[in-house]
Amino acid sequence: MNNKIKEIDNEIFFLSEIKNIINWDSDFVSTNKNNKDKIEIINYINKQRNEKIKRIIEDSNIILNAEEKIFFNELQIDYIVNNNSPELEAKLNETIFNLKNKYTIARNNKDFSLLLNEFSIFIDCYIAFFNKKELIGQTTYEKAFNCFYQKVSYKTFKDIVYSLKESLPEYSSSIKTYCETKPTEKNELILIELQRLFNVEMDVISFHKDDNNSLDFLSKSDIRITLNYNVNNYMFIKSFLHEYGHALYLLNISDDIHLKCLQLPFSKEFDEGNAKFMEKLLENQKFKKYFEIKFGIGLNPIYDNSSRITSNSIDYLKLCVARVIIEEDLLNNRITVFQVKDKWKKEIKRLFGDKLIIVDDSLILDDPHWFFGQLFYYQSYILSYIYTQNLYKLSLNKLDYTKIDKQEFYEDLKSFLRNFQMYGKTKNIEDIFSEKYGIKIDYSITFK
Ligand SMILES: [Zn+2]
């Protein structure tokens, strides 16, 4: 083991843990307070990280084993993106904090125009950040894409989006623009039952009424799931399964991996794929029936396109495709932030036809990723759909779904997933599919 690599791995992991805690604090505890202090701490952490990476990258005598090479490759990309522009990185962070604050106001008022100035500064920063000669790709968008998605080629992804654009049916369910779901009781009891079935052992599960669902990874021994329980039972179970899917991945990664930075999910998109695979349990009639009988409730999906989370899987993809198209236009300077709303309306109309009536700005504001500074997230939602389909297909041979109402099923399920999750970042997902199961990942998704 290379000592220098081991040392930098420890330090980078420690710095990212601090960042996770600051983000947790800023999202849930001291929300808009002390932002200036937080920005300063984040900037300081980034500066430390950049200097450490610089030292190791410039050391030409370094000898690496296979595991270290994977980590070193990530450091190199980090180095190209961040080291030349600490000022820009600091400005980008500050802009994201401002944007987050404005987003809350815009969302409460359902008024996208309140965000335009901040969002515009953010996009300009972002373009400057990724528009670097050293990065691979023809356009700014492609360069940034290649930084985020080193495991999938830009061309493969383009083909996927193109085939989706062509094949997604115009509308797929009865479309409502307002959520009619009523919060129902028993979610607390359902949670206990889900934890029993899965034999969940986690230190903290916290609840925030009226919040988005999320998983926060503070450290290897501190994983926090936030669930909104002010929803109907169906949505509640679905959210639990999804977020628990993320938690399970983090918990299943083997401690035998030497570098801490590699003890993380293989990729964001595969992480999401695992989480969505868990959601698919709810499509199983036996699983649904089990909860319905046990709690005397009806578990019916109520699809509602006022949000990506509540729409059905096809409409979900459409909302992601629309955002991906707009991101590409924005980063390649084909449109400005001030034209986003018109472009959004046009894309939504093209994808949904006349069935989805846009009344206000709720739909565009519903999803916080853009306004939390996370571009390139919808790409991972699209890719995760593919991984989910592949995992599910394989699971039909490996798991006995007739036992889905029995606890043993969940132990088998956890082992099934562990086969994919245990390697963390050290093993390519395509290799796992081919080496362990002799099959290739099928990237073709079409609804024709
Ligand atoms: Zn997720």
Commentary on this structure:
With 448 residues, the chain is mainly alpha-helical. The chain has a domain of 148 residues. Helices cover 59% and strands 4% of the residues. A 3-stranded mixed beta sheet has the order 1-3-2. Helix 9 crosses helix 16 and helix 10 crosses helix 15. The longest helix has 27 residues. It is globular. It starts with a helix and ends in an 11-residue tail after the last helix. The site of zinc ion has 4 residues, from helix 9 and helix 10. Zinc ion (ZN) binds next to helix 9 and helix 10.
> What's the total count of β strands?
3
Shape: globular
Structural class: mainly alpha
DSSP helical segment count: 17
Straight-line N-to-C gap = 51 Å
Tags for this entry?
448 residues; mainly alpha; 3-stranded mixed beta sheet; 17 helices; 59% helix; binds zinc ion
Give me a quick take on this structure.
This protein has 448 residues and is mainly alpha-helical. Helices cover 59% and strands 4% of the residues. It has 17 helices and three strands.
